[in-house]
Amino acid sequence: MKKIIIASTSTLHNGEYLDYLLPKLALHFKGIEEIVFIPYARPSGISHDEYTQKVAIAFSKINIQVRGIHEFENATEAIKQAKGIFTGGGNTFLLVSQLYKNNVLLTIEEAVKNGIPYLGTSAGSNICGLTMGTTNDMPIVYPPSFQTFGFVPFNINPHYLDPIEGSTHMGETRETRINEFHHFNSQPVVGLREGSWLEVHGNSIILKGNLTARIFTRNNEAYEVEPETELNYLK
């Protein structure tokens, strides 16, 4: 049975890394002493070691050790032996490229579908959808495919932002970009605001946090759903 947390962000404004999620993560990874961290997205270009250390500090607060996937001789075997997996945020193009390059995308998908607890934040959440096509990131590298895990039957837009009333910004809004996506793609898109996450248990997908999420479906007006809403109807 799938056991997944798909979080929009790792850090809330003025908060410490993962602090707002730690009580939930203590339950999510209950009984697990060590998780495998996937640092491939490298936010701001930091090294795999630096990123893993940052994550290790956060997880030490709930008495869980962290080991970066790059520390293993064989990345595929690392995932096969993992008791829990966390994929952090950063650049989604780089993340997906590295998942394919290191031949672990399908291995992670299989592990999680077989019940290994998974946490994703930002880019690590984006890849839980059918494709990475609704990322906010610049294409700094070119992955061999945009197809991702498909843990949920829709796409995700982490860090979803609403238009600012009265703003003189003349560029595209996030909603405009998602509507452009739907000219060429049929799957729904869930806009996850900061501090929100999706909790997946088996086939159940429930919106968590204090904020609504914005739902986009092709050829329809976008609409809001309240926290605790079941989203497995989206297909």
Molecular structure report:
The protein is an alpha/beta fold and 235 residues long. The chain has one domain (3-225): Rossmann fold. Helices cover 25% and strands 19% of the residues. The chain has 7 helices and 11 strands. It has helices spanning 22-28, 48-60, 75-81, 92-101, 105-113, 123-126, 174-181; strands at residues 3-7, 34-38, 65-68, 85-87, 118-121, 155-157, 189-191, 197-201, 204-208, 213-216, 223-225. It has a 7-stranded mixed beta sheet. Strand 8 and strand 9 form a beta hairpin. The protein is globular. It starts with a strand and ends in a 10-residue tail after the last strand. The mean pLDDT is 96.
Note the topology:
Elements: E1 3-7, H1 22-28, E2 34-38, H2 48-60, E3 65-68, H3 75-81, E4 85-87, H4 92-101, H5 105-113, E5 118-121, H6 123-126, E6 155-157, H7 174-181, E7 189-191, E8 197-201, E9 204-208, E10 213-216, E11 223-225
Parallel strand pairs: 1-5, 2-3, 2-4, 4-5, 6-7
Antiparallel strand pairs: 1-8, 7-10, 8-9, 10-11
Poorly predicted residue ranges:
none
What's the Cα radius of gyration?
17 Å
Q: Order of strands across the widest beta sheet? A: 3-2-4-5-1-8-9
Number of distinct helices:
7
Which band does the percent of strand residues land in? 15-25%
End-to-end CA span: 19 Å
Helical content band: 10-25%
| CATH homologous superfamily caption | Class I glutamine amidotransferase (GATase) domain
- By CATH, the topology is Rossmann fold
Major beta-sheet overview: 7 strands, mixed
In the CATH hierarchy, what is the class? Alpha Beta
Number of strands: 11
- The CATH architecture term is 3-Layer(aba) Sandwich
Oligomer: single chain
Number of domains: 1
